[in-house]
Amino acid sequence: MKRSEINRAIKEMQQMIDKVGFSLPPFCSFTPTEWQKKNNEYDEIRDNLLGWDVTDYGRGEFEKVGFSLITLRNGNLKNKKYTKTYAEKLLYIKDSQYAPMHFHWNKMEDIINRGGGNVLIRVYNSTKEGDLDKINPVKTHCDGRELLVEAGTQIKLTPGESITVYPYMYHDFEVEAGTGGVLLGEVSMCNDDEHDNRFYEKMGRFPEIEEDEAPYRLLCTEYPRA
User: Per the database entry, which stretches of residues form a coiled coil (predicted)?
Assistant: First the structure.
């Protein structure tokens, strides 16, 4: 991705967050220059990849495949220094974008529509071989309601609604046409985007960046060490 594209994506997500009325923690507004001066008291942000994240999954088609997100809090299963057992994210998906089919080996998460349009989340079970189980129904839990749905069903979440996604449950998501971009919340067990994602189609998670302008905000993978 070009840096200009990443900068634009971050600013668009900021606008959506402001529209919904969600307040961000201070570290989300640190500039690249300010990060150069931050000492070890901010290591939790560095070590646990808190902050801005923009992905095109290595496809080079961000307006079609990809989205923007912020990790607000997170534990770290690889570092005993950090004892949190939970994570929280915000995700912004525009009405033209798609987040590809994947599951998590370990993480259970709730995906919540925090505001904007409607999001459609398609669900499948996984086979033992890691393929899509297109036969067996999927047990879903949405805001206290348990329901069996056919494999491949798209669950619609309007603002305020949520779904629980269990390990090995394949899911993708996109915006319902005509309803506008969606700000999603994610409340989960510890997040590990480097090792806990199983994409149905092989793809990357973090973008390669072409530096065509200065960064507006650093991504969570770019912080300088103290």
Answer: none
